[in-house]
Design a protein that fits this description.
mainly alpha; 3-stranded antiparallel sheet; elongated
């Protein structure tokens, strides 16, 4: 199905859960990205310099360093990011978005935004941060 709706009623999860499932599926099928990949590319796209220390990305996703290395290795192999040691501090590894990564993220963001608006409502403004934080700990 092209709209990623699941026809079986027992799989019709409510609101955000269903929408995240649809976004995840659409990112995989249309853009070859996992939800983690999308979040990493998005964080790098939002960074003023287009790069972030790997430790910051790990903190953002609340992932271990090993898991973060695994995720970044896949993105680097796909040509979507580069990883390099920081010139002024060789202890710090930074991930940088490539032009291909920026393009892939832009296309994926369009898909994600459309699905979020479609399934969570047209009044939801997903372009601007609310300024509110949510503590889930």
């Amino acid at each position: 199905m092209t709209d990623y709706d699941v026809p079986d009623a027992r799989w019709q999860f409510p609101g955000v859960l269903r929408t995240l499932g649809l976004v995840h599926g659409a990112l995989r099928v249309r853009h070859g990205l996992s939800l983690h990949d999308y979040l990493i590319l998005g964080a790098l796209a939002q960074a003023a310099s287009g790069s972030l220390p790997v430790a910051e990305l790990a903190a953002f996703l609340q992932e271990s360093g090993d898991r973060m290395s695994y995720l970044l290795r896949g993105l680097q192999a796909a040509g979507l990011i580069d990883r390099r040691r920081r010139a002024g501090d060789r202890r710090t590894v930074e991930a940088t978005l490539t032009d291909a990564g920026r393009s892939r993220f832009a296309a994926a963001e369009t898909t994600a935004q459309a699905l979020i608006r479609q399934h969570l409502g047209p009044g939801l403004d997903t372009q601007e941060p609310s300024g509110r934080s949510c503590d889930v700990t």
